[in-house]
Description:
Layout: H1 2-14, H2 28-36, H3 45-54, H4 92-98, E1 108-112, H5 120-129, H6 131-134, E2 138-142, E3 160-165, E4 180-185, E5 192-199, E6 204-210, E7 222-228, H7 235-255, E8 260-266, E9 280-281, E10 294-298, E11 304-309, E12 319-324
Parallel strand pairs: 1-2, 7-8
Antiparallel strand pairs: 1-12, 2-4, 3-4, 5-6, 6-7, 8-10, 9-10, 11-12
Amino acid sequence: MQLYFNKCLSESLSCSSRLSASDYKYSQQALLDIRKSKDYCALDTTTESFIKELGLLRQPAATPTATMTAAPTKRRRKRCARKQKRGKRGGIRARLAASPSRPAIPSIILANVRSLDNKMDHIRLLRSANRTVSNCCVLVFTETWLNDNIPDSAVQLEQLTCYRADRAHGNGCKQRGGGVCVYIRDAWCQDAMVVCRHCSPLAKFMIIKCRPFYLPREFTAVLLIAAYIPPTSSSSDRNAALNELYQAISEQQTAHPDGFAIVAGDFNHANLKTVLPKLYQHVNFPTREKNTLDLVYTSLKGAYKASPLPHIGLSDHLTVMLMPA
């Protein structure tokens, strides 16, 4: 077989002067049969290079050079460039967490603290440990037990403006107890003013008119009413306290017919819907033992969703947190 191959090679070399490499024709099957035979041996380097010059060996496929430009690829957009992240949750709670200072209606925390002066450390700890509480727009505290001897600096909280309505001495009022206090977050509203303060043996309340920068067009103002009605066993006293509160709220609603009214406080079994049936109550769980005493009324049905928080210090009332729903 080797002699046969050498003979074929000598014949091809003799014809190389008469035929070019492109004109030479050979049988591929014959070459494959030679390679599969047992007498086949590999060509030496000289013979292989000579055959390559004749074009009898197949050249390897050419690799793409560096000068060849690759197909244009679509540039991937960065995650920070997307308006909404993939898999991001929607809804009012997600929007409120993303922009806590721009809600349509303010988030509220309501608590009966029973002496605000000795609960300041607990409130600061709660705000530092809970981000939702820290971003809350309005904090309403009842039974503050504050008086003229306690300055505003003693009950001041960071990034919040304090509005007090202490229990006045005289006129049948007790020396200790009662009083309401409202904190408004500066990032939510800086245009706020107290339009009414009322203190009597039957009811203590304060009305604050707020004009936040981000306010829906449906509302001209937000009316915050913090109220405290002392516990009494007489139904006539409760009705008289509700009538005092009704007169003050009706006066503000007449002055601001498109205002959003929020009435929050400790009512002690007094039902505000008996005098203001168009208001809606949002707290649906007990706040002191088995009784629901701390209530929040608004002029919009389903405006809030209430959830309980732990007691502040040694207070026997649960803290109520209301998020816009």
